[in-house]
Write a structure and sequence with these properties.
mainly alpha; flat; single chain
């Protein structure tokens, strides 16, 4: 029973992070949320006794792809005009669009 609650809890954290990832205006924050999603996904794989896939998930996605994304975003120095007008009401409308 505890296993079921833990898996539902981690899955709900993943889904919450995914929804926040879509709603973020800052790309660095989006990539940090993507990091959180990858780590929670590997925790879920470890929990389901698939340790090898969890480690591969961490090494490939976090070790290579996400670091490359962060490097490119920081090199391009992307600024968004919408981040200056960070109105909380826009999140509600974006959420309704999903």
């Amino acid at each position: 029973m505890l296993n079921l609650f833990f898996s539902i809890f981690v899955t709900s954290l993943i889904l919450t992070s995914l929804s926040l990832l879509v709603l973020m205006l800052n790309t660095v924050h989006s990539l940090l949320l993507l990091l959180e999603i990858f780590v929670l996904g590997s925790v879920l794989l470890f929990f389901f006794k698939v340790e090898f896939l969890g480690l591969i998930f961490l090494m490939i996605y976090l070790g290579a792809i996400l670091v490359l994304f962060l490097f490119v975003v920081m090199m391009l120095d992307i600024k968004t005009a919408a981040a200056a007008n960070d109105d909380p009401n826009t999140y509600v409308f974006k959420g309704l669009g999903l």
